[in-house]
Amino acid sequence: MKNKPINFILTLYVLIFVLFPTGILFNDTSAAGREVIVSDGEVTLKEAINIGFQRAKEWNVNATLTSVNSVDETMGGSRGETGKRFNWFMTFVVPGTDDFVLIGISEKKITLFRSGKQSQDPTIPYDEIKFDSSDVLQLAKDKYGLKQGKDWAKGYHFTLDSIEGKPILTVVGNDRDNRFTRISFNAKNGDIVSAVHKLPYGGGLISKRIGTDTVTKKGMAIMGVVARNNNLVVWGDKKPTQFSTTKQPFIELSHNNGESWTELQVNNYVTHAWFNKNDQLYAATKKELWAGTTSKSKGTKILSLDHEIEHIDYSINNHIAVISNGNIYYTNNQGESWEQAIIPQPFFVVQISNNGDLVGLTKEMKVLQKTNDGWKEITMPNRNDEPSDMIVINNRLFITTKSGIWTRDLQEGNWRKIKVDEEIVNFIKKGEKLFGNTYRGEAIYSINIKDEGKPEKVFDAVDLVVMDVDIIGDTLWIATIPGYSWEEMTIPLRR
To answer: Are 356 and 387 in contact (CB under 8 A)?
Structure first.
């Protein structure tokens, strides 16, 4: 047991390389839409083992294999289409001791050799590995129609472990509906041990009235909801996967409290939307901001940036501020013209008041307000209180901390405290309405900004992943996204 911390560190080290190699997990389209390119630098699992074994035997003649896994990369090639990958990791131990070595291989060469000590893992006799990665991949394709992973763990990936004394060779990819899939074989005889895929549960738009909860758009990833007068808008992804909510992006409008919906004309994935006082809809995409979006028109583009919009805010009279690439862009005339403000340090949040005041929460959790001379810090009334989140509504500042919510007018220095039953960790601002989420989003509170009384719990989000909330009349609208769990697969019918 004394070696458990080392074992844990090694496991974490391997997982970091396997699951999060630099720059390859998301938005990698280099392999899309082209024929498979096979490279001489790629090898199968057994070929990688042979390379690693030679080096391991030099380290210790009794070295015995315990595990192997392929690793993501951005080197092109087949992405595992032929059962081969460029990069592999494997571990060897010396039976009867606590000695181990981690070996990394890239393009048939040893690129990592790290020895140490840890508690023993089950070993895999080499002569029991009768099936190679290319063999089980073909079986997985034939029986389950396994496809390459697209959003995460690109292409096909392979692992070999000893489970209950058997050498288990697993191939990872996507099923026919692009859901994360894992199919395991006995490497000694090729028998299927298990076939599972990640299926969604939950997700959708919840409408809550007194005593009644109704779910529509079930299974969808509803990333946002906004309501004003008789208008209700939701946006998100109709066909999300565990690692992507941008597969089939949509934004829809309802004039009748969600009974029917009309799709709006936005070609890109919407990240934020709101109504101004004239019920005109504004929609933000990755790098652009549009005004007047309808079912017939995308509206008018009022902002286009070279870098992604990291955060966006609007005031009641529709002053707008965004953070992008370390700068703040803001407008006091609904986007007819824009000004730029250089920020002294990275901002986590930017807010703009009805008077056009800019306030930011830095990544060091300091609150700064823009002045004619630059930026000044707004000190907390209790220096032991650190902001968790910050919001500005009208010309009033709200800051949530572990001890409660502090509020003050931006032009005055007098703080008042709003007591809470449980800690609010982040705010959700909807015009002049303010909501708060507790830790892990387990509960949603409505915060009265006028009388500043104790926040009222309006929703218990048990087993739900809540992304957004708004209220119209007596109906609370909650935007949720699916969770995912491993479920057994059945062999699909051939199409």
So the answer is: no
